[in-house]
Amino acid sequence: MIRPVMTEVGIFLIPFALYAIWLVANRSGVFQGASWPARTVAKLVFGSLLLTILSFILLAHFSGAAPHSTYTPARVDDQGNFIPGSEK
């Protein structure tokens, strides 16, 4: 569960990282408050939210089984053999 959460957090932080790289490229103070005005931070948050929502939509659309498929859970048979689950 931690990997999907960290993936979404990483996607959320992409615009902030790109802005920080842009500040470094322009030799502005990355750690100075004047380099991060409220209007710019608001735009970065808005862009981050859009990216995160888009990633959720793409994840829901392109992952998982085909529509109307049947899921068979994994199981262990009588001899102790592991039989993986499948989607048909």
Major sheet details:
2 strands, antiparallel
Cα-based radius of gyration, to the nearest Å: 22 Å
For the record, the count of structural domains works out to 1
Helix fraction, binned, reads: 55-70%
For the termini, the CA-CA separation is 25 Å
- What is the helix/strand order? HHEEEE
Mean pLDDT: 90
If helices are DSSP runs of H or I spanning 4 or more residues, what is the number of helices? 2
Strand content: 5-15%
Low-confidence runs: none
Query: What class would the helix/strand composition place it in?
Result: mainly alpha
Which outline best applies? elongated
Number of strands: 4
Main β-sheet, spatial strand arrangement = 1-4
How would you explain this protein's 3D organization?
The chain is mainly alpha-helical and about 90 residues long. The protein has helices spanning about 1-25, 40-60; strands at about 70, 75, 80-85, 85. It has one domain (about 1-65). The chain contains two helices and four strands. The chain has a two-stranded antiparallel sheet with strand order 1-4. Strands 2-3 form a two-stranded antiparallel ribbon. Helix 1 (about 1-25) runs antiparallel to helix 2. It starts with a helix and ends with a strand.
Brief rundown of the structure:
The chain contains two helices and four strands. It is mostly helical. The protein has one domain (2-63).
